[in-house]
Design goal:
The complex is a heterodimer of chains A (148) and B (164). Chain A has helices at residues 25-35, 45-49, 66-81, and strands at residues 15-22, 86-95, 104-116, 121-130, 136-146. Chain A is of the alpha+beta class and 148 residues long. Chain A has a single domain (12-146), classed as Hotdog Thioesterase (Thiol Ester Dehydrase, Chain A), CATH 3.10.129.10. Chain A has a five-stranded antiparallel β-sheet with strand order 1-3-4-5-2. In chain B, a hairpin with a 2-residue loop joins strand 3 and strand 4 (136-146). Chain B has helices at 45-54, 60-63, 65-69, 83-89; strands at 41-42, 103-111, 120-133, 136-146, 152-162. Chain B has a five-stranded antiparallel β-sheet, covered by helices on one side. Chain B has one domain (16-162): Roll (Thiol Ester Dehydrase, Chain A), CATH 3.10.129. Chain B contains four helices and five strands. Classes of the chains: A alpha+beta (148), B alpha+beta (164). The interface between A and B is large, with 44 and 42 residues. Strand 2 of chain A pairs antiparallel with strand 2 of chain B.
């Protein structure tokens, strides 16, 4: 692979839009099969209708897996880093709002800080996932290790 | 943890999460700090590729061995988020993460080494803490995944809201 950027090239504040996904029931079902998480929250409308949380909240319909959103966030990092001698090393997420079939979600990445440790070069990144209404469905803190 | 491992396939997996639901630990039963039962599984290229396809990630590093050999990875790897499926592959059907209505609130994962086809993955999993907030019950749990060389491939912690 040819390195197209190095640690020195990346400025704090650098940001870009990443993976954009039209979420469908079929996609959620396929993720359930592939990730072995077949919780009825992801496919059973009757279960959703009868499920109420302690604060009185309910889901509107079946929901996408938190780890599906997480997977799109990680994919955004690998699409960016792997061709350029970087590695995705950490992601901390908070799943703030449900992702429903019919939603279009997009990942955004911003480099918030840089740090050289004794043995590594690191980009501290903030990730935000928004839906088509501009609502934040997930946020994340990531670490990218830059090898050159 | 059992001593044997075999190649894991979707045909081996029981997708019916209602089955044995009553055998699973509820919030009251979870014992923070206790390691729960798990099993080693061998991850195939098919498992990795099914997962990659499901998230629309057709990176040739997961699919094209000849290409992957030319990269710094030296061969096929998996997406760093592959641990999403390990939790279910490496646990037994009565594991509390399968309880219907379990809601994932957030996760943090450190990625140490790529997982490759043929790797045998073992899990050390615990509930670490239990919380009640705004009337809902939550569990905090940690998971450490190792490969056949006893090398940690990734480790992480998550919060789930418990249905009961």
């Amino acid at each position: 692979m040819t390195a197209e950027f190095s640690y020195a090239d990346i400025a704090v504040g650098h940001s870009f839009d990443g993976v954009k996904v039209d979420v469908t029931r079929e996609m959620i079902k396929e993720f359930a099969m592939a990730s072995f998480d077949n919780n009825p929250l992801h496919w059973d409308d009757d279960f959703i209708a009868e499920t109420t949380f302690a604060n009185g909240k309910k889901f509107d319909t079946v929901i996408g897996h938190g780890l599906m959103t997480y997977s799109f966030m990680v994919r955004t990092m690998t699409d960016w880093l792997w061709p350029d001698n970087g590695n995705h090393r950490r992601l901390e997420t908070r799943f703030r709002s449900p992702v429903y079939p019919g939603d279009t979600i997009q990942v955004r990445v911003e480099v918030q800080d840089k740090r050289e440790t004794r043995k590594g070069k690191w980009l501290v990144c903030g990730l935000t996932v928004t839906n088509q209404r501009g609502e934040t469905v997930s946020t994340g803190d990531a670490l990218a290790e830059i090898l050159n | 943890m059992s001593e044997t491992s075999s190649a894991f396939s979707a045909e081996d997996f029981d997708y019916d999460f209602w089955k044995d639901a009553e055998k699973r630990a509820g919030w009251d039963d979870l014992e923070p700090g206790e390691v729960v039962e798990s099993r080693p599984v061998t991850i195939t290229a098919d498992i990795i590729q099914r997962y990659a396809r499901s998230i629309g990630d057709m990176n040739p590093l997961y699919f094209d061995e000849e290409y992957a050999k030319t990269t710094r990875f030296g061969g096929l790897i998996s997406p760093p988020s592959i641990h999403a499926l390990f939790l279910f592959a490496c646990t037994t059907h009565d594991h509390f993460m399968r309880t219907p209505g379990t809601v994932n609130m957030g996760q943090n994962w450190w990625i140490q080494h790529p997982v490759r086809p043929g790797d045998t993955i073992t899990l050390t999993a615990r509930c670490l803490d239990k919380v009640i907030r705004k009337g809902n019950t939550f569990a905090i749990h940690d998971n450490v995944f190792r490969n056949q060389h006893d090398t940690v491939v990734c480790s992480g912690r998550g919060w789930t809201m418990r249905p009961y």
